[in-house]
Amino acid sequence: MDVVTGAQVAVAVTVRLARERMWELITAVDRIGEWSPEALDGAWDGGADGPGPVSGDRFTACNRFADGSLGAVTCVVTEAERPSAFAWTVLDGAGLVGSAWRYELRDGDEPGSTRVRHSFTHGPGVTGARIAAEADPEALNRRLVTLCRNMTTTITAMASPVSTASTANADTANGAF
């Protein structure tokens, strides 16, 4: 019985940033290493041309796992609706979907705030979580708990004053306002 495919978790965090600003941060895959305890780096394949990501765009990410191992993955954007939703799949070595990730942005209760929902769903592809769960069924639960913690940490770090200030300074230095 496949207990891994379809396993999912989601977190929701309200941040004190406008949706448009949060959109810019969640789609800045080249900055993910600044915020995530697991994702070390990311880069748009073929560069970041245009006003933002569109469905079908690809990026490569590098992750560090709990055992210290590193892994590069290919990601494909499946949804990019500015400033409401950004989603992608992570492909395994055979091109199957290993996981699906999604950010959903809604206006928060207070003016200028955003409710960020970040979700993960395991796909049918081969991943470290699948391999670990086949050896130890409790490994999947541990992985899902870790994902929730890391997703919350990432959102919080993205919205921190230091993170948003460093982007504003970089934009100003580059002549963008």
Describe the structure.
This is SRPBCC family protein. It comes from Streptacidiphilus alkalitolerans. InterPro entries: Polyketide_cyclase/dehydratase, START-like_dom_sf. This protein has 177 residues and is of the alpha+beta class. The chain has 4 helices and 7 strands, in the order βαββββββααα. The chain has a 7-stranded antiparallel β-sheet, with helices on one face. β4 and β5 form a beta hairpin. α2 (128-135) packs antiparallel against α3. It is globular.
* Model regions low in confidence, pLDDT < 50 over at least 5 residues: 167-177
Q: N- to C-terminal separation?
A: 54 Å
Radius of gyration: 16 Å
- Content-based structural category: alpha+beta
Total strands: the figure is 7
Order of helical and strand elements: EHEEEEEEHHH
Protein name: SRPBCC family protein
Pfam families: Polyketide_cyc2
InterPro entries: Polyketide_cyclase/dehydratase, START-like_dom_sf
